[in-house]
Design goal:
This protein is an alpha+beta fold. Helices cover about 35% and strands about 20% of the residues. The protein has 3 domains: about 120 residues, no CATH class; about 180 residues, Chitobiase/beta-hexosaminidase domain 2-like (Chitobiase, domain 2), CATH 3.30.379.10; about 40 residues, no CATH class. The chain has a 7-stranded mixed β-sheet. Strands 5-4-6 form a 3-stranded antiparallel β-sheet, with no helix packed on it. Strands 9-10-11 form a 3-stranded antiparallel β-sheet, with no helix packed on it. Strand 4 and strand 5 form a beta hairpin. The chain is elongated and about 90 Å long. The N terminus and C terminus are likely disordered.
Length: about 450
C-alpha cells in the first residue's frame, strides 16, 4: 500500500520517515514529482536503462518494498534477465548502479541544483534515500532577528547616492545594448540546445575517453614502403618490405635490386584505399561529436609526438612500425602469414584463425583497448591485414547497432566503478565479396583477469 502523502512544508503531516528512508517533512507526492523531473532531464531521456532502474527503485521503496530490491531482482525486473540470472557471473546491475549514482550527482550539480527533493542511491545499497535539498541562506537574516533602523543620511551621502544613480543608469543602458546585441547569439544557442545530443550514451563504453574534449586523440594509419628505380623508370613495392629502419638488410630488398637495378627510397606516395575510406569515416564520426581527430601516417608518427594523447592504430600492423613496439600484451596477434594466433585460448576458441589472402571471402579484424602511455589515456587497436577489413572494423565501432551488440558482450565482465578505464580484446570475422565487406560478425573477446567482486 502506498504511504499516505503529506506536504513538504508541514513535517507534522508525514509519518513515512519512520519506516522508509525518507526525511521527515518530505511527502511521497513530492518524491514522485521529483522523480518525473529527473527522468525528463537530458541525460535520463537518453538512457532508457538508467530511467527504468531509477523508476523501479523509487517506486518499490515508496511502496514499502525497498529492502527487497536485490541484485538478482533488479536483473530480472529491470534488465530482462531470466530466472537463472547469476549476479556473480553477470555484474550488469552493479555496473548500471555505478552509472546511476554518477548521473544523479551530475543532475543535482547542474539542472537539479535548486530542486527541493534530493534522491540518492548510496553505494552498497539499491534502495534510494529521499531528503530535502539544503538551500543556501547566506543572504537572509536569521529568523526572529530585529531589523535595525537606518541612520539619518548626511548631504555627502545624498551626493554619493546621486552619483551612484547616474552610474547605474549608464550601466543599465550598456546592459540593454548588450542584450540587443546578443539576441542573435541567444537564439543560436536555443537552436543548438534543441538539437539531438551529439554524443549517444551507447557509445560511451567504447569512445568516452577518446571523445574527451580536454585530451588530444591521434589516429596512426599505415604507410606502405615504395622504392624508386631510375633505371627502370617506375616505382615499386614488395608487400613483405615494411620496416623503414631495416629494409636494406632484408633479402627481399636485395632480390629486388638484382632484378630492377639500384633502388632509391623508401618513399610514401601511396595509402591503402580501404584505410583512406575508413579514416574518413572515423574522422566524420569524431567531427559529428565536436571532437578533432588528428591523423598521422605511420612514417610521420613518433612516440614524442603522440605519447600525451589517446591513440588509435588503424589498419595492417605490418605497415605500422610503432604498433609492433607498443608495450601491451595482445592475446590475438597477427603473424607474418596474416593468420591470427590466439595466445590465450579459452574453451571453444581456436588457437589459429587462418586468413591467408586479403582477397579471400573471409578475413578477420581485432579490436583491442589498453591503458594509454599517460594516465587517463587509452589506446585502441583497429587492426586487420586487408583494406576491406579496415573499412569493416571502423564501421563496426562507429555503428550504433553494432556498438550496442559490442557493449552488450563487454559489459558482462566490466567491474563496477571502472567506467572509462576498461581494457578488452575482441575478434571479428568479416565476409568479403570482390573487395567489399558485406557482413561482420562477433567471434569472441577476452578481458583482463579481475579479482572477484563480492558484495
Amino acid at each position: 500500500m502506498k504511504p499516505e502523502a503529506a506536504s513538504i512544508d508541514n513535517p507534522s503531516q508525514t509519518q513515512v520517515g519512520a519506516d522508509l528512508p525518507i526525511e521527515a517533512g518530505v511527502s511521497t507526492d513530492a518524491i514522485q514529482a521529483q522523480l518525473e523531473k529527473i527522468l525528463s532531464s537530458v541525460d535520463f531521456t537518453r538512457s532508457e536503462r538508467l530511467s527504468r532502474f531509477l523508476r523501479y527503485a523509487v517506486e518499490q521503496t515508496l511502496q514499502g518494498r525497498g529492502e527487497q530490491i536485490k541484485e538478482h531482482t533488479l536483473g530480472i525486473e529491470v534488465f530482462d534477465k531470466t530466472l537463472s540470472y547469476d549476479p556473480r557471473i553477470d555484474p550488469i546491475v552493479r555496473v548500471e548502479a555505478t552509472r546511476l549514482r554518477s548521473k544523479l550527482k551530475e543532475y543535482y550539480a547542474t539542472q537539479g541544483r535548486d530542486d527541493p527533493i534530493l534522491i540518492e542511491l548510496h553505494k552498497g545499497s539499491y534502495m534510494p534515500a529521499f531528503q530535502k535539498q539544503e538551500q543556501s541562506r547566506a543572504d537572509f537574516p536569521p529568523l526572529g532577528a530585529t531589523p535595525t533602523q537606518p541612520a539619518p543620511r548626511s548631504p555627502r551621502d545624498w551626493k554619493m547616492i546621486a552619483l551612484a544613480a547616474v552610474l547605474l543608469l549608464a550601466a543599465g543602458a550598456t546592459f540593454w545594448a548588450s542584450v540587443l546585441h546578443s539576441r542573435n547569439l541567444s537564439l543560436q544557442r536555443q537552436v543548438e540546445a534543441a538539437k539531438p545530443p551529439v554524443t549517444e550514451r551507447e557509445f560511451d563504453l567504447i569512445w568516452r575517453q577518446f571523445l574527451a574534449p580536454e585530451t588530444p586523440t591521434f589516429v596512426v594509419f599505415g604507410s606502405p614502403l615504395f622504392f624508386n628505380s631510375r633505371q627502370a623508370g617506375f616505382f615499386l613495392r614488395r608487400h613483405v618490405l615494411n620496416d623503414p629502419a631495416n629494409f636494406q638488410s632484408d633479402d627481399n630488398f636485395r632480390l629486388l635490386q638484382e632484378r630492377v637495378g639500384p633502388l632509391e627510397g623508401p618513399r610514401y606516395d601511396y595509402a591503402e584505399m580501404g584505410e583512406t575510406i575508413a579514416l574518413q569515416r572515423l574522422t566524420a564520426f569524431f567531427g559529428r561529436r565536436g571532437k578533432t581527430l588528428t591523423a598521422l601516417p605511420a612514417h610521420v608518427a613518433t612516440w614524442e609526438s603522440i605519447k600525451d594523447g589517446n591513440l588509435i592504430f588503424l589498419g595492417a600492423p605490418r605497415m605500422n612500425p610503432l604498433l609492433r613496439k607498443l608495450p601491451v600484451e595482445q592475446d590475438f596477434e597477427w603473424g607474418a602469414d596474416n593468420n591470427i594466433y590466439n595466445r590465450n585460448p579459452q574453451p571453444g576458441e581456436e588457437q589459429t584463425y587462418i586468413t591467408s589472402d586479403h582477397r579471400d571471402a573471409v578475413t578477420y579484424a581485432v579490436i583491442a583497448c589498453f591503458p594509454g602511455l599517460r594516465p587517463n589515456r587509452q589506446i585502441l587497436l583497429l587492426t586487420t591485414h586487408s583494406a576491406p577489413g579496415t573499412m569493416a572494423v571502423v564501421d563496426y565501432v562507429t555503428g550504433l547497432e553494432s556498438v550496442r551488440a559490442m557493449t552488450g558482450k563487454l559489459q558482462l565482465s566490466i567491474p563496477e566503478g571502472s567506467e572509462g578505464t576498461h581494457s578488452y580484446q575482441m575478434l571479428l570475422r568479416i565476409f568479403v565479396d570482390k573487395g567489399v565487406p558485406v557482413k561482420t560478425e562477433y567471434v569472441t573477446h577476452h578481458l583482463p583477469q579481475q579479482p572477484s567482486d563480492i558484495r
